[in-house]
Amino acid sequence: MFMKTAFVAVVAASILTTSAVFAGPTAEVLHYWTSGGEAKSVAVLQKEFAENGGTWIDMPVAGGGGDAAMTALRARVLSGNPPTAAQIKGPSIQEWYNEGVLADISSVANSESWDKLIPPAIAKQMKCEGTWCAVPVNVHRVDWIWANADILAKNNIKMPTTWDEFNAAADKLKAAGITPLAHGGQAWQDATVFETVVLGIGGPDFYRKALMELDPAALKSDTMIKVFDQMRKMRGYVDSNFSGRDWNLATAMVMNGEAAFQIMGDWAKGEFLAAGKVPGKDFLCGATPGGGFLYNVDSFAMFDVKGADKKAGQLLLAKLIMGKNFQKAFNLNKGSIPVRTDVSLDDFDMCAKLSSKDMAAATANGTLLPSYAHGMALRGAQAGAITDVVTAHFNSDMSSQEAVNELVKAVANSY
Ligand code: BGC
Fold it and tell me: What is the fold of 142-295+363-412?
């Protein structure tokens, strides 16, 4: 307790310049964690913040993947009234930094030795011209397939390890009157499925060329045609009400036995856990076919705001987010694994342990890849151009060749 109080006092003293009254650390936090599992997770942070003398002003913006939150954030920043902290990640951190609107949180990063605790590749994304401009929360894996254990057992189906096996399982389930794939028809969910198919069918090098380097040869290749062929198959495996459905409602379909599989990042596990479901018993987790590891790191950036209380709130928030206890408690709920390398996974479930093991292997063999669908690989304009084509294809009878042509065009026009 002394340590915590002392921290607040030191921070307050160091930033009290001309302002008269210090009301205590305050943070208005813009985030998009509104589903069952997400709300449980963010509550861990709110509680710790309050216990450390902070006043949290919540600004949740519903909408999976954060598109709506980013629109709300832009409006706030443009009107000259940015939130104290916002959930942003990947290359968009640098984009915001280049607009000159982010605060420098290096003082807390240095005093807490973040450089020793965060994998270098992730630390790099949190730094802007050598200063720390964001704090990482977790490592989500995107290339997961979730399954209803009962449905698989009753239909004598094993977790698929190739896309052919997936198709065979899905065809069998469809013939038995079961919806094979729970999916929400929102652009970012289509993109989530698409990137796992790109990785699975093309392999890590193809993923890198197509979705990170935007290499025209990869974008218009026969491999990309096969990717869209598989996407067309996936479209046939979803139910007729998929349009506009939120991702967590798709997860609920798997949970309730209304569908067999969902392809979604491990925030879906947060939903299963929040509903009291047990991995390995009620639901199964496995990497999507093909190898590699698509990572998605949530992080918060602090905005350049006025007021000693808000500045103290930013530093306190950043310190707590990287705290060892928080990293464990939050990630147990969120479905992700801690970004800190010194947090024991003993209390984590089998899916988290698999994620950590696969991440280490992928780091070692060069197949650890940033998720394009979750804003880790590309700048917004390029990612958006790809997603528009993926969604247009998924929701129409566009051929794979047409989709590839559109993809090449859309990417070329996005610069
Ligand atoms: C975020 C997760 C979030 C998910 C659904 C992802 O892009 O990284 O934290 O739970 O979207 O909103």
Answer: D-Maltodextrin-Binding Protein; domain 2 (3.40.190)
